[in-house]
Design brief:
Keywords: Signal
Signal peptide: 1-20
Radius of gyration: 18 Å
Largest sheet: 3 strands, antiparallel
Protein name: Peptidase M15C domain-containing protein
Number of helices: 5
Mean pLDDT: 91
Domain Peptidase M15C: 127-211
Oligomer: single chain
Strand content: 15-25%
GO molecular function: peptidase activity
């Protein structure tokens, strides 16, 4: 009898846990759209509201606590992202937080310092006049504090690290949490579903960055 009760309790916990997982894709709610105005969204000729989707995603942090995050992405990759993040959740892969960049007034430095994971933001590539893949909702940045963007000044060759508080995480041989490597489940899933990794770039490194190249 005791064994049957234990089995039932385990089954119930698993069932309730499965039901509590949230992985949804919808049109952008009006309340969210209003929040985006003048922050992640600016009028432009390249992408429309109808091209984007609002995702709600269950994820766990380093301490194993479950959260439900929010993300705006291009509708072309919405299902792929839900599949990827569902697999990461099942594996208890840690993602500290997943908030819309509008919470940080679309200030990339601020949200990276907060180790935020996000996708859509209508902006240029850092240090460039060219639009970022984020401007089309086709790139995702994961655990941004621990996986910084590293480039070198064209003027004097000095190293530029973004966020500025992430200099100690530039050394990828060091051991620290949330680090993305080629052996990492995050890397394997994103590349499996048609994304390239900024950590593999030659002239600069964007360890947090996965952008959709299609397939």
């Amino acid at each position: 009898m005791k064994q049957l009760l234990t089995t039932f309790v385990l089954w119930l916990c698993c069932t309730l846990g499965a039901q509590s997982q949230i992985f949804t894709s919808t049109a952008i709610p009006d309340s969210v759209w209003q929040t985006m105005q003048g922050k992640t969204w600016h009028d432009n000729p390249y992408i429309k509201r109808s091209d984007l989707r609002y995702l709600r995603i269950s994820h766990v942090d380093l301490e194993g606590r479950t959260h439900v995050g929010e993300m705006i992405c291009n509708k072309l990759i919405a299902d792929k992202l839900l599949t990827i993040f569902r697999e990461l959740y099942k594996a208890h892969y840690p993602i500290q937080q997943m908030r819309l960049p509008d919470v940080y007034d679309a200030d990339d430095e601020r949200q990276m310092r907060a180790n935020n994971t996000s996708c859509f933001c209508y902006r240029n590539i850092s240090g460039s006049k060219n639009l970022s893949k984020h401007a089309r909702g086709l790139a995702v940045d994961i655990n941004t504090l621990y996986n910084p963007y590293v480039r070198y000044s064209k003027k004097d060759g000095s190293q530029i690290v973004e966020p500025a508080t992430a200099k100690k995480y530039v050394n990828r041989a060091a051991d620290f949490p949330y680090k993305i490597t080629r052996n990492d489940l995050c890397y394997k899933l994103f590349t499996k579903y048609g994304f390239s990794w900024g950590g593999a770039w030659k002239n600069k490194k964007d360890y947090q960055h996965f952008e959709f190249i299609g397939r």
